[in-house]
User: Which sequence fits this backbone?
C-alpha cells in the first residue's frame, strides 16, 4: 500500500485527489493539509471532499502531518510547492507535482532541491493529454514546415496563469519536433498591422470563461487542408487519477526527476 499525502486538500483539485486516493485499493490516504488560514484546517479531509468522515484531519502545514507517508501529491501554487518540496526532502517523501507556472530559475531550484528524491512533475497528468503530446510531436515531425502550427487553450475564469502549462508544453513539443527554439517561436498575441505570419512562429492563444475545466487544440494549417487535434477535459477526475497513478509508479523508481511520459511508458 502506498501512503499518500495531499497538499491543498481544501481546493477543487485537492478534493478530487482525495477522492481518487480513497477509491484506489492500492492507496492509503496518510495525510492532508492546507495553508494555515484555510477554512478546511481542522476538519476531516473526507468531509471537505464530500466523502464523509474518513478519519484524516486537514493539517495547517505539511510539517503538521502526523505519521509516516510515502509520497506527497501537490497541485498548489509555485510558492507553496517550493516550500512543500523542502518539507518533502526533510521527511523523505517522494513527490508528484502538478503545479503549473514553475519555470526558469524556480524550476532549476526545484530540481536541485529534489535531487535526492523521486519526483514526477508534469503540467498535465491526464493520460489523454500525455498521449496528445506524443501524437502532436509525430504530426509536427511528419508535416514539417509546410504547415502552420497554432495552439488554442480554454479554461475557467478562476485560472490564474496563462497560457496554461499544458499549452506551453505543447508548444515545446511542437518546436522540438521541427527543430525550433520554443522561446523564439512562441507568439502569444496578435493585434493590429502585424504583417504576414512567419513560417517559424507557433501561435498560443488563451480563452478564459465560465467553468471550462480545460480544452486544448493544436491546429496544423496547410494550403488546401487543416488538421486539428483536440483534448477536452469534462472534469478534474482524469487529472486526479493520473496523479494517483504517478504516485503509485514513482515510489518504485530510482531517485530522479520524471514526467508523465515516463509514468506512461511513452518515451
Assistant:
Amino acid at each position: 500500500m502506498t501512503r499518500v499525502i495531499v497538499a491543498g486538500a481544501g481546493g477543487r483539485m485537492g478534493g478530487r485527489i482525495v477522492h481518487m486516493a480513497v477509491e484506489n485499493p492500492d492507496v492509503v490516504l496518510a495525510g492532508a493539509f492546507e495553508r494555515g488560514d484555510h477554512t478546511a484546517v481542522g476538519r476531516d479531509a473526507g468531509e471537505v471532499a464530500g466523502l464523509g468522515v474518513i478519519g484524516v484531519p486537514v493539517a495547517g502545514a505539511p510539517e503538521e502531518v502526523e505519521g509516516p507517508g510515502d509520497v506527497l501529491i501537490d497541485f498548489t501554487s509555485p510558492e507553496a510547492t517550493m516550500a512543500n518540496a523542502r518539507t518533502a526532502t526533510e521527511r523523505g517523501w517522494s513527490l508528484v507535482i502538478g503545479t503549473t507556472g514553475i519555470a526558469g530559475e524556480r524550476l532549476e531550484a526545484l530540481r536541485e532541491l529534489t535531487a535526492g528524491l523521486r519526483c514526477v512533475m508534469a503540467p498535465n497528468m491526464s493520460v489523454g493529454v500525455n498521449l496528445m503530446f506524443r501524437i502532436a510531436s509525430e504530426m509536427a515531425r511528419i508535416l514539417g514546415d509546410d504547415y502552420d502550427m497554432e495552439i488554442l487553450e480554454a479554461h475557467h475564469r478562476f485560472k490564474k496563469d496563462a497560457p496554461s502549462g499544458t499549452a506551453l508544453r505543447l508548444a515545446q513539443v511542437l518546436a522540438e519536433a521541427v527543430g525550433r527554439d520554443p522561446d523564439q517561436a512562441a507568439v502569444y498575441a496578435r493585434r493590429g498591422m502585424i504583417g504576414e505570419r512567419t513560417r517559424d512562429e507557433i501561435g498560443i492563444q488563451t480563452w478564459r470563461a465560465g467553468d471550462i475545466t480545460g480544452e486544448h487544440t493544436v491546429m496544423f494549417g496547410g494550403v488546401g487542408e487543416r488538421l486539428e487535434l483536440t483534448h477536452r477535459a469534462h472534469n478534474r477526475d482524469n487529472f486526479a487519477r493520473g496523479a494517483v497513478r504517478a504516485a503509485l509508479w514513482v515510489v518504485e523508481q530510482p531517485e530522479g526527476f520524471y514526467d508523465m511520459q515516463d509514468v506512461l511508458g511513452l518515451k
